[in-house]
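Morning. Coffee machine broken again, so started the prediction first thing and wrote up yesterday's gels while waiting. Chain of 213 residues, entered below exactly as on the submission form.
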Amino acid sequence: MADELAVTLGGEPMLLLGARALWWPARQALLIADLHLGKADLFRRAGIALPSGGTRDDLQRLQRLVQARACRELWILGDVLHGPAHRAAWYRQWLGWREQHSALAVHVIRGNHDRHLPHAALQVELHEEVQLGAFLLCHEPRHMPAAHVIAGHIHPQIALPALRRRFPAFWLREGLTVLPAFSAFTGGWVIAPAQGEQRIACVEQGLVAMPGR
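Came back before lunch.
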């Protein structure tokens, strides 16, 4: 099982990564979606018992990706936050991670959970959406005739009944690529196969292409 898969999106060579990220070699850019910093902390504040360490684990996975390549840019396609930026452990972990990678340009496309992001002081550059060459980077998937859209938001998943499990997945359609949620602490939407589409599951840091129709 490979941990990366070469694809061509919008006429540009890209790599799908089993660690739930997209690598854009020409820009030396790493693209992820739906980081949801502080989600577990928000649940704990609401009285729901959850284990700690989710943000630390996600940031360690992100750090391995950044260090494995000559990464100049990180693009987070929405929902970098999950709620208010409480000064909890996850916030200190993020600032520590950001300090380690101070030379890395971190761009965030504002998502539906990012209402508090402008005041969170996460040391990122905030955008509504961005056109980069043939690509439109946005949070919610949509079709745009003049560009290949790369988005997040819906947390695509694939159900494997034989394993009684769901796995995050890349969803590739004509003119649209939807990234899996980067955060391990997320639900998702199971994508049904459709004609001409590709679904690639992220399974234990590896990639498994699902049969199409």
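The first strand starts at residue 4 and ends at 9. Going to sketch it on the whiteboard this afternoon.
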